Amino acid sequence: MTRTKLAADDMLAVEGFSASFDLKGELRPVLKDVTFSLPSHSMSAIVGESGSGKSLTALSVLGLAPRRLVRTSGQIRYRDSVLTELSERELRTVRGARIAMVFQDARAALNPVFTVGHQLEATVRAHQKVSRKQAKSLAADALASVRIPDVSRRMEQYPHQFSGGMAQRVALAQTLLCDPELLLLDEPTTGLDVTIQADVMDLITTLGAERHMTTCLITHDLGLVGQYCDRVIVMKAGEVCEQTDAKTVFSTPTHPYTQLLLDASELKQRDTTERRIIA
Amino acid sequence: MTVNADISRTRLPIMRVQNVTKTFSTISAGRRTHLTAVDQLDFTIAAGETIALVGESGSGKSTAAKCVADLLAPTEGTISMDGAPTIRPGRRARRRDHRRVQLVFQDPNGSLDPRQTVRQVLEEPLRNFFGNNRGELRRRVRELLADVELDESLLNRRPRELSGGQKQRLGLARALAVEPEIIVLDEPTASLDVSTRGQMLALLERVQRHTDVAYLLVSHDLAVVQSLADRVLVMYLGSIIESGPTDRVFTNPQHPYTKALIEAAPKMEYRALRSAWRLDGEIPSPTDRPSGCLLTNRCPVVQPDCHAQRPPLVAVDADHLSACIHPELLSAPSMDARTAS
Ligand SMILES: Nc1ncnc2c1ncn2[C@@H]1O[C@H](COP(=O)(O)OP(=O)(O)OP(=O)(O)O)[C@@H](O)[C@H]1O
Ligand SMILES: Nc1ncnc2c1ncn2[C@@H]1O[C@H](COP(=O)(O)OP(=O)(O)OP(=O)(O)O)[C@@H](O)[C@H]1O
Ligand SMILES: [Mg+2]
Ligand SMILES: [Mg+2]
């Protein structure tokens, strides 16, 4: 088993972490000896094909993986504590306040029966001792920071009245309100157009620097990795196959799978001159 | 009418979207306000063609897609197929004509019933054609699985036991079941990794070649749009602000918003130089749209006369239209353009 020591400047270390799905007694391994670390104040990315175990790895950090996923070896360390040894009660004090995550399905994280403003204010009040009025203004600022227009009206609306990309940004705003030290973002920008994506990523980068956050982005978009991340962890079929600097990935990818991902990112343009249709 | 050797050049539109407007009314601070999600949309779709709708989050793409699929009734305007208006304003959206237009939703999790198996998902729409003829049902289900390259071993699985890519394919197979003429694809590749995305695109092309189905594609992924679409419609705040053949819009954008969109796409490089052509400023609310050009408060080259009135879509050349009255400022080097404003 590979072991990495939690260096003084690592915020999180996943060490030889293996886990299997318990299918009525039969164990199906999904995470195999996953080992990587997130240096403090860095922005890392986990990339890899669909089903390679990226989301399950992130959920395991928070202790939120499905019940049927059982750890078979390894551990996850965060600062001085071993997360994989903590009780559910202890984990709850870490979750949200110190380690927060934006889930892949952002809309599902919002409660359909409360207004967006109500939900954001509740988040503020759960983390800070402030008056109702202050909570409201902090919530409004958070919405504005993720480029939601017309904040006062939007605060009174329900999640279904938001477009897909707006709901995603609301979930991000809610997470940022918790002021976490370690932020895990599962596909935070897939539903966003590129101009807003750039705004949202700039915001995450700026806040990350201001608040000394450590960020880990799960993404399919290598362009995003090149633009914003320092480190890259490449996963394939439940294993980490490459862990390196973002810069190196673009200049000299070592693993053939990483090269494959880079090649697949460039799509052929459709030749519209041939197929032009007069309508 | 003369017979053209190139069949694709003489195709007539199968759907005509004319002046379609969709407003929602919402209650804010006790007052009812109207939100214009889609404003006077006008376009046609021909058989075998792929049209992409691109634009900022909240610009009305999904709303337009739902109107085309008859899941929302437009507030104004008409949508007709082969000349016969099928969707009129005011009428409650009914699932009529569903056979001709199908929608594959943005979120495959939300649109698949978690209790249904793959077989049940596909048999449901087929019953309308084959009733309970088990032999026919089985044959057609197998055909559909083959069309989207899903293995028959998945037939008894439920959605949560499928990967993201498999769920997307199932959604497409269900849409194909009723042999539609148009499939509306809302973000068909959003949750797919790059290799699955490539497979999905190849699959969509193959299905289109075989069946001549037309696609209305909604996507934020400009690489996907460039590889799949014949024509692009760029939306901003509910309106189409530029439209034209994909290659021409991408190589020679005629609207500052389109240019910003294209230049904001991340490059496959480490810390690529970023374009100075960026949109700052508040994104206006669709309840309170600017009266002049919609982009005035964010445009890097806005001019005094841009505020005067809403510029109409006009032809730049042949079938390339734009709603910017100062396209000459687009070719200026970005930095100069910015300081000039
Ligand atoms: N609740 C579950 N029950 C059974 N298998 C599951 C469950 N959740 C995930 N899996 C399986 O575990 C593997 C890893 O899933 P995971 O969600 O971590 O993938 P991912 O890398 O995040 O993929 P994507 O890019 O599609 O989100 C996949 O094969 C998936 O099918
Ligand atoms: N049911 C509804 N009630 C009120 N407003 C709505 C409703 N559905 C959509 N809207 C509003 O209409 C506008 C357009 O929404 P739409 O979902 O069409 O955007 P979109 O272009 O698909 O965005 P995205 O890229 O984020 O999915 C948004 O301002 C949205 O908040
Ligand atoms: Mg995932
Ligand atoms: Mg949408």
Radius of gyration of chain B: 21 Å
Q: Residue-averaged pLDDT of chain B, rounded?
A: 85
The count of DSSP E runs of length 2 or more, i.e. the number of strands of chain B, is 12
What oligomeric arrangement do these chains adopt?
Answer: heterodimer
Q: Strands of the largest sheet of chain B, in order across it?
A: 6-7-8-3-9-10-12-11
- Summed over residues and divided by their number, the pLDDT of chain A gives a mean of 88
- What is the H level of CATH, i.e. the homologous superfamily of chain B? P-loop containing nucleotide triphosphate hydrolases
Shape of chain A from CA axes?
A: globular
Helix content of chain A: 25-40%
State the helix count of chain A: 12
What is the name of the CATH architecture of chain B?
3-Layer(aba) Sandwich
Explain this structure.
The complex is a heterodimer of chains A (279) and B (341). Chain A has 279 residues and is an alpha/beta fold. Chain A is 39% helix and 26% strand. Chain A has twelve helices and ten strands. Chain A has a six-stranded mixed β-sheet, sandwiched between helices. A four-stranded antiparallel β-sheet of chain A has the order 2-1-4-5, covered by helices on one side. By secondary structure, chain B is an alpha/beta fold. Chain B has one domain (7-340): P-loop containing nucleotide triphosphate hydrolases (Rossmann fold). Chain B has ten helices and twelve strands. Chain B has helices spanning 61-68, 108-111, 118-130, 134-147, 164-176, 194-211, 222-228, 246-251, 256-264, 334-340, and strands at 13-28, 31-46, 50-55, 76-81, 84-87, 101-104, 182-186, 214-218, 231-236, 239-245, 314-317, 320-322. In chain B, the strands form two sheets. In chain B, strands 6-7-8-3-9-10-12-11 form an eight-stranded mixed β-sheet, sandwiched between helices. In chain B, strands 2-1-4-5 form a four-stranded antiparallel β-sheet. In chain B, strand 4 and strand 5 form a beta hairpin. The termini of chain B are far apart. The relative contact order of chain B is 0.13. Mean pLDDT of chain B is 85; it is low at 1-9, 93-97 and 334-341. Chains A and B meet through helix 7, helix 8, helix 9, helix 10 and helix 11 of A and strand 1, strand 2, strand 3, helix 6 and helix 7 of B. Bound molecules: adenosine-5'-triphosphate (2 copies) and magnesium ion (2 copies). One adenosine-5'-triphosphate sits between chains A (21, 30, 48, 50-56, 66, 104) and B (160, 163-164, 193).
